[in-house]
Specification:
The complex is a heterodimer of chains A (442) and B (311). Chain A is 67% helix and 6% strand. Chain A is an alpha/beta fold. Chain A folds into two domains: 99 residues, Periplasmic binding protein-like II (D-Maltodextrin-Binding Protein, domain 2), CATH 3.40.190; 231 residues, no CATH class. In chain A, helix 6 packs antiparallel against helix 12 and helix 12 packs parallel to helix 14. The longest helix of chain A is centred in the middle third of the chain and has 38 residues. Chain A is elongated, with a radius of gyration of 31 Å. About 3% of the residues of chain A have low confidence. In chain B, 31% of the residues lie in helices and 31% in strands. Chain B has a six-stranded mixed β-sheet with strand order 6-7-8-3-9-10, sandwiched between helices. A four-stranded antiparallel β-sheet of chain B has the order 2-1-4-5, with helices on one face. In chain B, strands 12-13-11-14 form a four-stranded antiparallel β-sheet, with helices on one face. Chain B contains nine helices and 14 strands. Chain B has 311 residues and is α/β, with parallel strands linked by helices. Classes of the chains: A alpha/beta (442), B alpha/beta (311).
């Protein structure tokens, strides 16, 4: 027992003291934030690309329809242009030719272009024209006070959803639940891969370094493997811990700065808070965005404690399962190239779980989501999506029991493969041989 | 008294038998050679002694009692496949390995200091292993093997991978450890070193112990009754050639002026050496007479090369 703690201590300290650990711990959130901003960047860059569209309106009815925007500039041709002329002039992105009154002849508009136009462009053109025709048609009925009627018809509503809960009804948001579920799933998915990979590399390194035989002459192979799995897992938890502290720090900082209370589960309290805030807002002392209030209110409706606890529990269980598999793979092969053969099925399972997770956000109570949140290989990833939508306690308990029982079983199987694999050099074993190793006597 | 006894060890792998009823008895404070061609089962036996793997049947006794897993703390093992953690500092590495062998932090510190000073490499303490040359790493590897003052040392092909300087250093250290009371098992192909330092050997071939005993006894037992003689002619004759007769058989003969050498074989093993000398004396003036004992290398090749009898 003291030896396994020695191994854990040594492995943990070597990893945590590395500069790369500190760099990665601090850099990963930054990278994640950047990753989230990529769509923004893309929009920024693609927006600068202006397209010229030339319109040949032979009816003269639709001069006002197309208005320049960020993406397209529209020019109207005053003189009549033959299709040959259009064909020879390649400078515009596209031509829109209108030959007849569209109310009478809906097929009278055509887009000509040298290059295939995008679907986005076509729908933009269609939408502009349809809106125009819609209003033109309405106008043609000559209803008095039409503009006012139209304005009054544009009703905007704000749906808030409340979930019945034991501790009182809480305001929820499907969008927010999805976002939180996705983030948790993504975190677990990334961690399973990166920390599992870390275990595999470490095992493989010990094997190729040939230190492993020196090691197993002092400690039991099982201790060596478990020590490694536990220490890498602790490194992962340390990392999560640092992030949670950073996040809570940021959130507290933000809440203090904005004057919004976080971490309140009591509806009444929220209401009074919100009211008092609205009052102050109305008093004009501080202009608080009502959207902001809404978000704050919904955030308070999410049971963060449960999510964090489950995140950690599922991380540990899932990690132990996958790290054991990775350790067994690492022990069975001599180099990275050989490992890919065994990695493929693991990758497929994790990817499968990941996609099921994504689709579970749409249908968290569906049978696919339910079963995959019970199967230990997929449950850590899938269950995390379901939790923000509310999962019965017995389901959680059952899923966790299955997960942890399988984790124990998996480490046992992995250790059987490991103790044979680490001492075998040269040839890459087949799956059949791996099964034989499991059955070997110690 | 035997320090280590492996009794009737059988180890079966899926496709082949690695050890078939092998018994090895290593006397206290001896250097014991474990010989055999590649794949004979030496490493398996060593791994069983080290509790790395268990035998299918048979027992290992250490110091007269059944060996238990914690006995590995009394064993220093230098495997054939060896290495160190490349990214770790020398001091940390030795500390880690020593503590895994059951030393306390303070004892380990003391031992590290002692050995680094002994090899005059105290300033390497803070260096990473990957910064060291191969020869330097070998010294660290050796220190890692002996740092916990094991009573039983097992060296698997110790000289492979060691340069001649370090190999010699290693040999002297092994002899020094024996002087201090350690029992040493020595697995190797290097027969010259076996003759030089081993007291007893077991030769394992195709999973079985085919030859066991003290080196000198084995060499005696395998002698082929060959004698190397140097002689000059008897005064009566000028030319001197030895002729085979019913006492001896001349294997080869070389003449260098009037000083000749020859290798003769007793025709009959029961003939005493004195009778042989007398027979030779009748032919020539004997200058030297020396029995040729087979080298361990020859015995090894003879034994291993011989067809193994089937059950």
């Amino acid at each position: 027992m003291s030896k396994i703690s020695l191994i854990i201590e040594n492995e943990y300290m070597t990893r945590v003291r590395k500069k790369s650990f500190l760099v990665m711990t601090l850099l990963t959130p930054v990278l994640m934030a950047l990753l989230c901003c990529i769509p923004l960047f893309i929009e920024l860059f693609s927006g600068s690309d202006m397209r010229n569209v030339t319109i040949a309106d032979q009816t003269g009815l639709y001069r006002e329809v197309f208005v320049d925007n960020d993406e397209y500039t529209y020019t109207y041709l005053d003189t009549e242009t033959s299709s040959e002329q259009m064909r020879s002039d390649e400078s515009p992105y596209a031509y829109i030719v209108i030959t007849d009154n569209l109310l009478n002849n809906p097929n009278a508009m055509t887009i000509y272009s040298h290059k295939q136009t995008t679907a986005g462009f076509e729908s933009e053109v269609e939408r502009s024209m349809e809106n125009f025709l819609h209003e033109a048609k309405l106008a043609s009925y000559d209803i008095p006070g039409l503009q006012q009627i139209i304005d009054e018809c544009n009703v905007e509503i704000n749906v808030s959803s409340i979930r019945f809960d034991e501790e009182g009804d809480t305001q929820t948001s499907a969008g927010l639940a999805t976002a939180i579920g996705m983030i948790s799933t993504f975190i677990i998915y990334i961690f399973l891969f990166s920390y599992g990979g870390m275990v595999m590399n470490s095992v493989m390194q010990e094997k190729t370094n040939r230190i492993v035989e020196v090691m197993v002459s002092s400690v039991k192979p099982f201790d060596l493997m478990m020590g490694k799995i536990i220490s890498v897992g602790l490194v992962g938890l340390t990392q999560i811990g640092i992030w949670i502290i950073l996040l809570v720090g940021l959130a507290l900082g933000a809440s203090v700065a904005l004057g919004i209370p976080l971490f309140i589960n009591n509806q009444a309290e929220i209401l009074t808070q919100v009211q008092s805030m609205s009052n102050t807002a109305m008093a004009g002392s501080a202009a608080i965005d009502p959207d902001m209030l809404d978000i704050a209110q919904t955030l308070s409706g999410i049971n963060f404690t449960q999510i964090v606890v489950c995140l950690i529990l599922y991380f540990i269980g899932g990690y132990v399962i996958y790290a054991s598999i990775f350790a067994a793979v690492g022990s069975a092969v001599d180099n990275e190239t050989d490992s890919s053969q065994f990695m493929l099925p693991i990758t497929l399972i994790i990817l499968f779980a990941f996609y099921v997770g994504i689709f579970s956000a749409e249908d968290p109570e569906g049978s696919m989501a339910w079963w995959c949140s019970m199967i230990p290989f997929t449950s850590p990833i899938v269950m995390m999506v379901r939790i923000p939508f509310g999962v019965a306690t017995w389901e959680l308990a059952l899923s966790l029991v299955i997960l942890y029982a399988s984790a124990i079983g998996m480490t046992w199987i992995a250790s059987r493969i490991y103790r044979v694999g680490i001492l075998l050099y040269g040839k890459k074993p087949s799956y059949k041989e791996l099964f034989k190793w499991i059955k070997y006597k110690a | 008294m035997y320090y280590l006894e492996a009794r009737n060890i059988v180890k079966q792998y899926a496709s082949h038998k690695a050890l078939d009823n092998v018994t090895v008895q290593v006397p206290h404070n001896h250097i014991y050679g474990l010989l055999g061609p590649n794949g004979a089962g030496k490493t398996t036996l060593i791994r069983i002694i080290n509790h790395i793997t268990g035998p299918d049947s048979g027992e290992v006794y250490i110091d007269g009692r059944l060996s238990i897993p914690s006995d590995v703390e009394k064993i220093g093992y230098l495997p054939e496949e060896r290495g160190l953690y490349k990214k770790m500092k020398v001091g940390e590495q030795l500390m880690y390995l020593a503590r895994l062998k059951g030393l306390t932090r303070n004892d380990a510190k003391e031992q590290i200091k002692f050995w680094l000073n002994k090899f005059d490499i105290a300033n390497w303490d803070k260096k990473k292993v990957e910064e060291l040359s191969k020869g330097m790493q070998q010294k660290i590897q050796f220190i890692a093997t002996v740092i916990h003052r094991p009573q039983l040392l097992i060296f698997d092909e110790p000289f492979s991978g060691f340069d001649p300087v370090n190999a010699n250093l290693l040999k002297n250290e092994i002899l020094e450890l024996r002087r201090q009371g350690a029992t040493i098992i020595f697995s190797t192909h290097n027969m010259a070193s076996v003759e030089e330092i081993c007291d007893e050997i077991t030769l394992i071939n195709r999973s079985r112990a085919v030859l066991q005993g003290e080196i000198n006894e084995i060499r005696q037992a395998h002698k082929k009754h060959l004698f190397k003689v140097a002689y000059t002619s008897n005064a009566s004759t000028t030319e001197c050639t030895l002729h085979s007769n019913d006492i001896y058989h001349v294997m080869e003969q070389r003449q260098a002026g009037c000083y000749n050498t020859a290798i003769v074989r007793k025709s009959n093993a029961t003939t005493s050496n004195n009778e042989l000398i007398q027979a030779l004396m009748r032919e020539c003036q004997l200058a030297t007479f020396e029995e040729i004992l087979p080298s361990m290398n020859e015995i090894f090749i003879d034994t291993v090369g011989a067809p193994v009898e089937t059950e």
